[in-house]
Amino acid sequence: MKIEGKAFIITGGCGSIGGTTARMILERGGYAVVFDVLDEAAGTAKVKTYPHPERALYFKTDISDYDSVSAATTAALAAIPKGSLAGGVHCAAIAPGADWSHHLKDSVPRFAKVLQVNVYGTFVVDACIADAINSQYPDDGPFAPRTTEERGIIINIASVVARPVPARCITYGPSKTAVLGISAGMADFLGPFGIRCCTVSPAVVASAMMSPDRIPYFETELDAATIFPRRQSDPAEVGQGIVFLIENSMMNDFELRVDGGWRNSSNWAGPKDPRANALSLE
Length: 282
Ligand SMILES: NC(=O)c1ccc[n+]([C@@H]2O[C@H](COP(=O)([O-])OP(=O)(O)OC[C@H]3O[C@@H](n4cnc5c(N)ncnc54)[C@H](O)[C@@H]3O)[C@@H](O)[C@H]2O)c1
Description:
GO molecular function: 2,4-dienoyl-CoA reductase (NADPH) activity
Radius of gyration: 19 Å
CATH architecture: 3-Layer(aba) Sandwich
CATH class: Alpha Beta
Number of strands: 7
GO cellular component, one term: mitochondrion
Keywords: Oxidoreductase
Helix content: 25-40%
Largest sheet: 7 strands, parallel
Strand content: 5-15%
Bound molecules: nicotinamide-adenine-dinucleotide
Structural class: alpha/beta
Number of domains: 1
Protein name: 3-hydroxyacyl-CoA dehydrogenase type-2
InterPro entries: NAD(P)-bd_dom_sf, SDR_fam
């Protein structure tokens, strides 16, 4: 699918991977419609620093709130050229981090929060974007003939810690496992409408999510756990994967791992409690 002239909603588009993706879409002649939590003025100012700012739009949105996503999607449809919405790249998520505790119950409130943002938010974002794409076409009801035209693509961002989930990601990891499940279900559901759905799973990306105090730990882990290259990815390397999935119409129901051959599954090395060797990111 060509990006030129098409509009894509990019959640988390003020962040590292989302911001890079927005820039790449703009550079290829597309419209980047960014949903993020910054207020309207700050978010708009940010996306207007991207290339081709005349095609960059911003809507303050909380992805964990259905009303917010639904309203932003309606506003986005009204602001872009008629019929141009062709997809979404869902990059917004949280990785809260926590101090280690030997009481798993301490993780329960964080699990609830992560599920609300990363899992419920993914379902809501995908649903609102898919319905918005389909609203540009005649509504033939639930059992319409299968379309042969390509209407669009939705890409969700999971993570290499979606499977297998390490102890240090005891809440964030399963939320990303659920993202893989949501993508698979969406791909099958949306096939008859001509909408593809794929997932990108990065390893460790140089981003705001990766605060400086976490970097020394991750450099050690990347050195031990990846095949090659044993370094953090640049957000642009993830963005290239996203652009490939958009542009190649045969890519559907696919998890693209951009991870340098990441094989880490556990921090269980040596005689100590494995958590003594690892950061808790939950
Ligand atoms: N950075 C990594 O190492 C890494 C690794 C694997 C997967 N990922 C995933 O990649 C995606 C992008 O992460 P990133 O590294 O660019 O992080 P980032 O922190 O730079 O960007 C995340 C963006 O999401 C926004 N956001 C957070 N909560 C939101 C909400 N409720 N509503 C709307 N926007 C919200 C933030 O404001 C931010 O702009 C995430 O899904 C993340 O889990 C990141």
